[in-house]
Design a protein that fits this description.
Oligomer: single chain
Largest sheet: none
Order of helices and strands: HHH
Strand content: under 5%
Structural class: mainly alpha
Distance between the termini: 47 Å
Shape: flat
Number of helices: 3
Number of strands: 0
């Protein structure tokens, strides 16, 4: 199945946001891998593989906090508690 690719322009703001998210993800993944490795002398690719779900979850949580209005966050928290 072939899909037609159209030329799309990406705004400067969107490109900068992509760069920011890439950097945030890299930091979060590195921090999570170090936590998984604990006291190991070397952080390995296996530590990174194990840390990946944690890093993704942390970014999703950060995104929800940044993009959800305060009143909606309070409603969601109370719904989870119920």
């Amino acid at each position: 199945m072939k899909t037609k690719h159209t030329e799309q322009q990406i705004s400067r703001d969107a490109a900068m946001l992509a760069v920011e998210w890439k950097a945030r993800f890299a930091r979060e993944l590195q921090d999570a891998a170090c936590r998984v490795a604990q006291d190991a002398a070397i952080v390995t690719s296996e530590h990174y593989h194990q840390a990946l779900p944690h890093a993704i979850a942390a970014l999703v949580q950060q995104t929800e906090l940044e993009t959800t209005p305060l009143n909606a966050r309070e409603e969601t928290a109370s719904q989870r508690a119920a």
